Amino acid sequence: MDIKSIEFQTTDVVVAYDSETGDVLHVHQVSDEVVDGKRHSNDRGALEAERDLVAELARKQFPGRTVKVLTAGPDAMPKPGMRQRVDVRAERVVEEIDPRPRRIIEPAERR
Fold first, then answer.
1. What's the sign of the alpha-carbon dihedral 60, 64, 77, 36?
2. CA 14, 19, 25, 29: dihedral to nearest 10 degrees?
3. pTM for this one?
4. Torsion of CA 19, 69, 99, 79, to 10 degrees
């Protein structure tokens, strides 16, 4: 088999979040492979396994928090300059401009 091209197309974004505050704890991108123009999709079992893994990682990384997981579309990947949180009641990702000041660190040779 002679493969000419392989691409990855984001199909889902799995978001682990604190169910009380809506803080996003972990974002995981799920992709399908496109080999020579033919899409090879993940099955539902693989997506459920990804969700379980993301939830478990977030629980270990953030002990004491109540972790929930939701699956969003590919446009839920974080964008530069934006902050994400989850609207807990609606269970959806909300993006807002990140108000935190940015720190610029100059390269060593410029100091």
1. positive
2. 0
3. 0.73
4. -170
Alpha carbons within 13 A on the beta-carbon side of 2: 0
How does pLDDT run along the chain (111 residues), one tens digit per residue? 677 888 888 888 899 999 999 999 999 888 888 888 888 887 778 888 888 999 999 999 999 999 999 998 888 888 888 888 999 998 889 988 877 776 667 777 654
- Asked if 30 and 14 touch (Cβ cutoff 8 Å), the reply is yes
Label residue 84 exposed, middle or buried (CB < 10 Å: 0-12, 13-18, 19+).
Answer: buried
